[in-house]
Specification:
- It contains one helix and nine strands; from the N terminus they run αβββββββββ.
- With 120 residues, the chain is mostly beta strands.
- It has one domain: Immunoglobulin-like, CATH 2.60.40.
- Strands 2, 3, 6, 7, 8 and 9 form a six-stranded antiparallel beta sheet that branches.
- Strand 4 and strand 5 form a beta hairpin.
- It is extended and about 80 Å long.
Length: 120
C-alpha cells in the first residue's frame, strides 16, 4: 500500500512567464506621470457650508468637493495633476467664486484674476 505522502500525481513545479516580475498596469503608468497637489483655503469668519475647487486642470467643468479640517480651520482637497500650469478658483457655498490671497495669482486673457499652480 502507498501512503498519501508517497504519491506524486504528475505535479511539477514550473515557473509562469511573469513569476518574479511586476507587470505595471495602465493606472500605474498614468499615476507615475502625475503629481499630488493639495489645495488649501482658510475659513475666515463664520464657517462656510461648502467649498469646491474648480480649474483649468479639467477645463473648468468639474467642481472638486473640499473637506474641512477643524483643527487648522481650513478647507482642503488633493488632486493628481499632470505636468503643466493651471488656473483655479474656490467656489464657496455653491455661488461665490474666490481666490486665495495667500497663493500665487495672476490675470488671465479675459481679465479674470485666478490662482495659479505649476506642476513639475
Amino acid at each position: 500500500m502507498y501512503e498519501l505522502d508517497d504519491l506524486d500525481i504528475g505535479a511539477e513545479t514550473t515557473k509562469t512567464p511573469f513569476e518574479g516580475r511586476v507587470v505595471p498596469s495602465e493606472f500605474d503608468r498614468v499615476m507615475k506621470e502625475r503629481t499630488t497637489k493639495t489645495f488649501h483655503l482658510h475659513n475666515r469668519g463664520p464657517r462656510h457650508l461648502s467649498v469646491q475647487l474648480c480649474g483649468s486642470f479639467d477645463n473648468w467643468e468639474k467642481r472638486h468637493e473640499m473637506q474641512f479640517d477643524h483643527y487648522a480651520n481650513q478647507w482642503f482637497t488633493t488632486l493628481h495633476l499632470s505636468r503643466g500650469e493651471y488656473a483655479y478658483k474656490y467656489v464657496i457655498d455653491n455661488k461665490h467664486w474666490v481666490i486665495n490671497e495667500e497663493e500665487t495669482k495672476k490675470k488671465d486673457q479675459a481679465g479674470n484674476i485666478n490662482n495659479y499652480v505649476g506642476v513639475q
